[in-house]
Hints:
Helix content: 25-40%
Number of domains: 2
Largest sheet: 4 strands, mixed
Number of strands: 10
CATH class of the largest domain: Alpha Beta
Number of helices: 6
CATH topology of the largest domain: Zincin-like
Structural class: alpha/beta
Radius of gyration: 23 Å
Bound molecules: zinc ion
Distance between the termini: 43 Å
Strand content: 15-25%
Amino acid sequence: MTIQYSLKRSRKRKKTISLQIGNNSAITIYAPYFTPVKEINRFVEEKQKWIDRAIRKQALLPVHPPKKTYVTGEIFYYLGQSYPLDAYFDPLENLGVIFRNNHFFLNCPVNMAMRKYYFVSWYKKKARQYLSERVDFYENMLKFSSGGIRITSAERRWGSCSEDNHLSFSFRLIMAPPQVVDYVVVHEMMHIREKNHSSKFWDLVIEVIPGCKEHRRWLREHEHHFIL
Ligand SMILES: [Zn+2]
């Protein structure tokens, strides 16, 4: 079987041939300018198994995260557990989200923007409570304090630590399991000590959260569930 690829030759590249698999499983080979085609083909052949595996893996990943529609039966996450939604509209009751008996209840007219707004508000409130407690807990344990916390709507970043040690966390973090939340809390708090991702930084994190690598991976693999 021959593998289709596009070839990019570079005068800057000295010795190595490398390959990249882009979206739609497109393969690009990067090679030094004068590499014979035969050698490139041999490289591709040698990598065939690896390429097959990588493409299969890519096919399993959802391309577009399923967008929430806020209808009854839909699943929402809270501290690592999933709970079904019961959506209705009763104008005589308070509008908004209530979490009770392992169910989310949403009282809101059928209006996507409004329904999303109420969910985001609920998650932000819970995130602020829960994350404040966890930061307090680790401040006591580690014997240093942060400049306070802020809850953001960031989609790509779980947390950050500013120059003046303010901690920011995405409200989405509250959908992850408690041990994963703690990892992100400790990660950002250790940036108070080390403003980088050096091995010294990771040593500090691992000392408190030995499973931090696993939690990082978990976040990467599950983040598509946490889009509202
Ligand atoms: Zn970091």
